[in-house]
Structure formats: C-alpha cells, structure tokens
Write a structure and sequence with these properties.
CATH architecture: 3-Layer(aba) Sandwich
CATH class: Alpha Beta
Number of strands: 10
Helix content: 10-25%
Number of helices: 4
Number of domains: 1
Largest sheet: 7 strands, antiparallel
Strand order of the largest sheet: 3-4-5-9-8-7-6
Structural class: alpha+beta
Strand content: 35-45%
CATH topology: Protein Transport Mog1p, Chain A
C-alpha cells in the first residue's frame, strides 16, 4: 500500500510540475479598441484611461491602455484629432516625440532608431520607425524604452496618433536595441494593427 501511495504521489507531483511549467508568465490577449481604431496583443489585461488634453486652446481626446508585467509597462496611447483639428497634427506629434527624446537626452537624428513595419487591420504593410532609448539613471534603477509613433486616418475623417511603447525599469542597464527585440516585446509591436 505504501508503494502504491508513493506512485500516486509521484504522478500527482509530476502533474503539478507540468502544470506549473506550462503556465505562461504572460497572459497574451487580443484587445480590440474600435473607438480608437486598433487591435493590439497585450501580455495581460490592460487598464484603460481616457482624458482630454488642453492643446492650443482646444481639448484633444487621449486614450491610454496599459499593463504592467514585472519590470515592464506595455502601453498604447491614442490621441484623436477631429477633422477641424488636423492642422495641429504635425506640431502635436513633434511635441510628443520631443518630450520623450528630451527625457532620454537624445536627438531624433541620433542612432537610436531602426526601420520597421506595421500591418493594418486590413493587412496592409506600412513602414515606420522604432526608437530604442536609454534614460538617465534615477538612482537605484535604470529605464529603457522602445517606442513607435503611427499616424492613421480615422473613420470619421479625423486622425489617430498612436504611441506604442514598452518601458523597462530594472536595477541594471540593458542594451535597448538588443533587449527589445526579444520575442515577448516583438510580439507586442508586431501585433499592433491600426485601421
């Protein structure tokens, strides 16, 4: 009887270990955001926040979907301009980029970018640029980021400006360009599909 008990215990422990080994750390899920005009693959259930940004005397809607997994924050920010606000697009996008570049103490012309592609919901493949940034140390932690901006026409004749990014915070500095090409980060960027 003790031999049978030990065998059953061994089978049970093996089954538990297999279950634990098969449980993914990341719970990938497709998030559809019809109002913002995109589908994205997040490594967990994102939280959503909507706000209105004052800009040039106008209110600009911004939506943010983000999830924190260990040392990483995966996020998609969408700024939506109406047809009447389209003239603000170039200056607003430049300001969004400059804010991040200044924080990383780089110029957009520095060698921090790489040519990339994204695919629309309709399967059209279009060029974009990915930026790999390493921020100045904040004491006990180091931060790095991969970010891309995509501008697309909205269904109502306006424009969506997307900022797709992953921010990594850890005790040691990483080579951002190499680090963010790992599969779990590549999936997030490759599976972002605007309309």
């Amino acid at each position: 009887m003790s031999k049978l008990f030990i065998q059953r215990l061994g089978v049970l422990l093996t089954a538990v270990l297999m279950l634990v080994a098969c449980s993914p750390k990341l719970d990938w899920r497709t998030v559809q955001s019809p109002q913002e005009g995109y589908n994205a693959l997040f490594p967990g259930k994102p939280e959503k926040m909507d706000r209105r940004l004052p800009y040039e005397g106008q209110e600009i809607p911004q939506s943010l979907e983000a999830v924190k997994i260990d040392d990483d924050i995966y996020s998609v920010s969408t700024v939506t301009l109406s047809k009447d606000q389209i003239p603000l697009q170039a200056k607003l996008l430049e300001q969004m980029q400059d804010n991040i570049f200044k924080r990383a103490n780089v110029d957009s012309q520095d060698d921090v970018s790489a040519d990339a592609f994204y695919q629309t919901i309709g399967r059209q493949k279009l060029p974009t640029k990915d930026y790999f940034l390493e921020f100045a140390s904040t004491g006990a932690s180091e931060q790095s980021m991969r970010v891309r901006w995509i501008t697309r026409a909205a269904a109502d004749g306006g424009i969506h400006i997307y900022q797709v990014s992953v921010l990594h915070t850890a005790p040691a500095r990483v080579d951002a360009k190499k680090f963010f090409l790992e599969e779990m980060y590549a999936n997030f960027f490759d599976e972002f599909h605007p309309e």
